[in-house]
């Protein structure tokens, strides 16, 4: 999801790193964070393929009902997304991540145990995925706010973000491709067990990190503190001349992209007639564009500047998404190849956009607001995934999978005018503009 000339480029003097950043153990600790998250992400991709197939084949529900599972995963971002940021900013982010991934081990271990014993029902699966989504809310807010405590220098910070994005990219490419053969050999229950094990590995890696965040300043929790903290984060994020266009662009993009992604597994199965092994290959091969975009992001940002890189990346991504149903409608081998080609192009753009926008957000946000501003982003984007999944279920029930894919693909075009606004537009159109706004919104 969305997440140069030097117009808009982030410089080291734009924002001072938080206290304790660039700790002596930063390289080792980042390696542990990277390794644990990579394993967890790899396991998550098993669920991308396994959960909808489990719902329609083992639990025998309709494709429209199966489309509600992504809604269950992301729906908690709507009520919890904003409060999570205010809460996480008052807690240890590392400890928050530990607790959340521990909860994931229990959740997916329970799903596995119920499925293995034949006691799993769709309502139970929906509720357990909903609980998993609650843990994801707090983990993601803490996770995207933690890295600046290790790296204060923007260049090191972006390299770290790019490496984490690269792991996500490879997991999207290799996870589904591996899941197909695993499901074929061990069944869907084996994929559920693999995801639980991956979360356990992530818990172990987080526990081994030596770096400790600076002690939080004791603040009295007066009545209404949560509301006031949320309001502060919202005011900063939605009033910032660079962050606001990125947030609106990402929300629009993700709302419609989720309709494509929610439908894709069953679209391949029901419309293209592919077996599970080939569905994994199609989805995994389609994600091959992410690493390319991740690796290009740093070079593009240095050459063209942050705003131009974001606009180019978003345009490439939308072009690829729109081409997916157009080429997929050819049917047969040509349709499958076209679907993969369009998705690779889309993933190149998204792979460049995500780490660039994340680094911009982290460097333009004061350390004590990182959790809250991150929660605004997660609330909007991941809440849009929940709504998009809900829309998909309705459209699929009324008009079928193909229509849902077409509506989602064409709707992503609307993200481009949402991005080319305010500070982004000014930085692109003003000759000689070379820096992003400082955290208070002034030019640095």
Any overview of this molecule?
There is one protein chain. With 444 residues, the chain is an all-alpha fold. The chain has one domain (26-214, 226-429): MFS general substrate transporter like domains (Growth Hormone, Chain: A), CATH 1.20.1250.20. The chain is 76% helix and 0% strand. It contains 18 helices and no strands. The chain has helices spanning 26-58, 63-66, 68-74, 77-88, 93-116, 122-146, 154-186, 188-207, 225-239, 243-271, 276-286, 289-304, 306-328, 332-364, 370-399, 401-411, 415-419, 422-429. It is globular and about 55 Å long. Residues 1-20 and 433-444 have low confidence and may be disordered.
Set out the fold topology:
Elements: H1 26-58, H2 63-66, H3 68-74, H4 77-88, H5 93-116, H6 122-146, H7 154-186, H8 188-207, H9 225-239, H10 243-271, H11 276-286, H12 289-304, H13 306-328, H14 332-364, H15 370-399, H16 401-411, H17 415-419, H18 422-429
């Amino acid at each position: 999801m969305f997440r140069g000339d030097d117009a808009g480029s982030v410089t080291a003097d734009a924002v001072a790193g938080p206290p304790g950043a660039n700790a002596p153990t930063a390289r080792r600790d980042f390696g542990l964070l990277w390794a644990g998250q990579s394993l967890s992400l790899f396991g998550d991709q098993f669920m991308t393929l396994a959960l909808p197939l489990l719902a329609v084949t083992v639990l025998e529900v309709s494709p429209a009902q199966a489309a509600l599972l992504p809604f269950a995963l992301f729906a908690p971002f709507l009520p919890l997304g904003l409060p999570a940021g205010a809460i996480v900013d008052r807690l240890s982010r590392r400890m928050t991540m530990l607790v959340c991934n521990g909860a994931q081990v229990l959740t997916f271990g329970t799903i596995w145990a119920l499925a293995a014993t034949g006691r799993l029902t769709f309502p139970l699966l929906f509720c357990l995925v909903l609980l998993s989504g609650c843990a994801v809310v707090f983990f993601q807010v803490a996770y995207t706010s933690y890295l600046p405590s290790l790296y204060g220098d923007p260049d090191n910070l972006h390299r770290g973000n790019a490496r984490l994005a690269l792991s996500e990219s490879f997991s999207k490419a290799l996870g589904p491709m591996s899941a197909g053969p695993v499901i074929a050999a061990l069944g869907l229950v084996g994929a559920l067990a693999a995801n639980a094990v991956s979360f356990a590995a992530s818990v172990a890696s987080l526990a081994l990190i030596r770096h400790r965040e600076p002690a939080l300043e004791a603040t009295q929790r007066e009545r209404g503190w949560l509301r006031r903290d949320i309001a502060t984060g919202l005011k900063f994020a939605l009033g910032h001349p660079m962050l606001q266009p990125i947030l609106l662009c990402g929300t629009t993009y993700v709302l419609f992209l989720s309709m494509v992604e929610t439908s894709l597994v069953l679209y391949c199965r029901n419309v293209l007639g592919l077996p599970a092994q080939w569905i994994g290959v199609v989805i995994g091969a389609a994600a091959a564009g992410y690493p390319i975009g991740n690796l290009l992001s740093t070079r593009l940002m240095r050459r063209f500047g942050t705003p131009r890189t974001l606009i180019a990346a978003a345009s490439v991504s939308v072009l690829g998404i729109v081409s997916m149903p157009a080429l997929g409608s050819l049917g047969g081998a040509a349709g499958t190849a076209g679907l993969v080609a369009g998705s690779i192009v889309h993933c190149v753009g998204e792979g460049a956009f995500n780490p660039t926008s994340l680094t911009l957000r982290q460097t333009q946000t004061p350390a004590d607001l990182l959790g809250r501003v991150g929660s605004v982003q997660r609330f909007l984007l991941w809440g849009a995934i929940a709504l998009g999944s809900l829309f998909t279920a309705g459209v699929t029930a009324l008009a079928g999978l193909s229509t849902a894919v077409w509506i989602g693909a064409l709707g992503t075009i609307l993200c481009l005018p949402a991005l080319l606004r305010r500070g982004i537009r000014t930085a692109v159109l003003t000759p000689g503009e070379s820096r992003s706004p400082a955290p208070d919104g002034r030019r640095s």
